[in-house]
Amino acid sequence: MKGQSVKGRSALAFRVGVLTISDMGAKGERKDTTGPLIKDMVASIGGQSVKYEIVPDEGEMISRRLIDWADGEEVELILTTGGTGLGPRDVTPEATLKVVDKLVPGIAEAMRAVSLGKAPHGMLSRQVTGVRGRCLIINLPGSPTGVKECLEVILSALPHALSLLRGERGGHTPGQGEG
Q: Strands 47-55 and 14-21: what pairing?
């Protein structure tokens, strides 16, 4: 399957949308450092960033953007950054839960586990991961360190997850789980 064309695309390439959630970033008062980091990291495994936007911490706006990108089939993977903490304006998980068809808890659990291994406050992270249609949506923290740690632990699983969402069937590697 490796390298074969799937509907005009390489089996390894996939289209990514990066959505940064930040009140200050949306106003141009803070430079976004996590969005570019995400783009670089997913490029290392074949991710092609085709959508990028900074929006304020507004639940309805976040949900609308997730719906537009996922339902428009412009992207296969949406990575959000920011809004996953306990602050009153941190609403990214709730906005994501409103739009996903099913959850993928293992990805969020793996990210929380790596964060908890680095600092006790990792248990406070509220990332959500789910699927809308054929699009995987993953909430990442809002700090560059958190993004790097979380993405490093899940990157290797993303191509297989996206392949499954495309409807491709490959053999399961022994010990890799059902997928």
A: parallel
Four-CA torsion 103, 104, 107, 109, nearest 10 degrees: 60
CA distance 125 to 72: 29
Report the range of poorest mean pLDDT among 23-37, 108-122, 158-172: 158-172
Q: How far apart are CA 21 and CA 81, in angstroms?
A: 6
Evaluate whether 145 touches 85 at the Cβ level (below 8 Å). no
Q: pTM value?
A: 0.88
**Phi and psi at residue 11, to the nearest 5°:** -65, -20
- pLDDT for residue 1 is more than 90: no
- Dist CA 39 CA 50 (whole Å): 10
Q: Which residue has the tokens 């790097």?
A: 148
